[in-house]
Amino acid sequence: MGLINLAQRTRGDIVATVNNILSLYIDPVIELNTKTSDFRLSELMNSDKPVTLYIVIDPENIDRMQPLFRIIMLQILKKLIKRLEFQNGKQIKAYKHRMLLMLDEFTAVGKIDYFEKSLAYMAGYGVTAYIIIQDTEQ
C-alpha cells in the first residue's frame, strides 16, 4: 500500500513525522559537520595509533540531536561488530586496538535497540561499553 492510497489524515501525519525527523539536516551546522568525514570508522580500532573520538551533545540539543546520535552509534557498531576471525579453532583479534565506549547520560538520547542487543556480545569484538546514568530509574 503506497502513501498515496492512505487516508488524507494518515498521510498528513506520516509526512509531518518525516519532515520533523529530517528537519535536523536542514540546519547549516549539521549539514557542514556531516557533509564529509576526516576519518573512517574502521580507524577507531585499526589505526596505527589509538584514536579518541568525542561526541558531545549540549543538554538543550539532546532531543533535536537524538536521530543523528542514533545513526552515528549504529554506524559505529555495525561497522566494528560484524566479523570474528578464528585460527586453529581459536578466536584471534580482528582489530589492533580495543574500543571503550564511555556513554555518560546515555539514557538521555533514547533507546537504541541494536546497541542494547549488542551489549551481550560486543566484548568478543574488542568493544567495551561503560554506561553512566544518574540513578537506576533511568
Q: Can you describe this structure in just a few lines?
A:
With 138 residues, the chain is of the alpha+beta class.
Q: What is the rounded distance between the termini? A: 38 Å
Tell me the helix content: 25-40%
Instruction: Note poorly predicted spans.
Output: none
- What general outline do the C-alpha atoms trace? globular
In quaternary terms, these chains amount to single chain
Strand content: 5-15%
Radius of gyration: 19 Å
Mean pLDDT: 86
| Number of structural units classed as domains | 2
How are the strands ordered across the major sheet?
1-2
Describe the structure.
The chain has 138 residues and is of the alpha+beta class. It has 2 domains: 1-36; 39-132, no CATH class. The chain is 38% helix and 13% strand. The protein has helices at 8-22, 28-35, 43-46, 62-80, 113-118; strands at 85-87, 90-92, 99-104, 127-132. Strands 1-2 form a two-stranded antiparallel ribbon. The longest helix has 19 residues, at 62-80.
Keywords:
5 helices; globular; alpha+beta; 138 residues; 4 strands; 2 domains; two-stranded parallel sheet; two-stranded antiparallel sheet
Give the helix/strand layout.
Blueprint: H1 8-22, H2 28-35, H3 43-46, H4 62-80, E1 85-87, E2 90-92, E3 99-104, H5 113-118, E4 127-132
Parallel strand pairs: 3-4
Antiparallel strand pairs: 1-2
